[in-house]
Amino acid sequence: MSEQVQQGVSQNAVKEKIWTRDFILICIANFLIFLGFQMTLPTISLFVKELGGSDQLIGFVVGIFTFSALLIRPFAGQALETRGRRLVYIGGLIVIILTVGTFGFLASIAMLFLMRIMQGFGWGCLTTASGTIASDVVPATRRGEGLGYFGLSGNLAMAIGPSIGLALVVLIPFNQFFLICAILPAFALLAASQIHFKKGEVKKVSSSRKFWDLYEISSLKPSILAFFITFTFGGIATFLPLYTAQKGVEGIQYYFLVYAVSVMLTRTFAGQLYDRKGHKAVFLPGTLLMVIAMFLLSWLPGTAGLLIAAFLYGFGFGSVQPALQAWAIDQAPANRKGMANATFYSFFDLGIGIGAISFGQIAHSFGYGSIYATAGFSVLIAMILYVIMTRKKTA
Question: pTM of the predicted model, to two decimals?
Fold first, then answer.
């Protein structure tokens, strides 16, 4: 009897393990994918400028990428459940490799615009699948912690990717630069090919649900909050290099490093805090730090202010994002985790896309500083909505 108990305890310990072979592989792949992506994030605006584009066009080039990702996510979520994780993840990864590799050979903004649409389709499939795969391979009782560690692989790429990108574009032509950015996800493809993916479940779907049941309703609350949080992203990633150059503030390459290190610090405890005490212990403190960071960027008195804002924003976002994602997934039935992740990332992308396009117009009409004041008010709206959503009961 005692041996059976010991065996049961041993099996339970194995079940609760986070750092399995598949989890390590998906983290390695995620790091390489995000490294290539983060290298392009602060440099795409410089490429558009080289092609003769304005601030408004920069906003549209950034925004169309996220809107195309948004369009594909619900269908990617459906395919994750019916076709399996491998098809969606590997297919999206191949599209990313091909599109990013061609950027530097494009001679017009119109062609770049079309290629960004294709890249968005690949990104929507890839990131919807990767978050779902990560949630598959971590124990449900440690999902907040596991997704925090998974997010850390992307944050590590954030720590070095933008700085590498900004350094490389002054040393090599854009065609060589974007080829390097495409090679990194090609290595991710090698790691991903070794993962044991969850297979899809072939189901008969009624005609009334097949075309309309594209989102997971139970995940809407955290997803809506994610929209107002990620609305701030378009201003930071797209216009901050141009804003600091205009104001003569140095240290933009260190902004992304400090931001990413700050996010990584939060990953060591925020996920565990969510697992123990829920999103109420994480959301409001994290969003308050983000609001302070946005208004500090709007003022931007110098390099010290820039780096303090980076730390505060990273600490806040690093706490809030995995908590919202875990909340969205936890609310969904077992057979709807892929749809829950698709719903979450759809609103995530919608915030980035609308933010980027809106900020392009704001920058054109009112200047770069107004972007960050607007972003601060967006996070304040998220805080107010959160209080309203959780007033009666907790999720």
Answer: 0.73
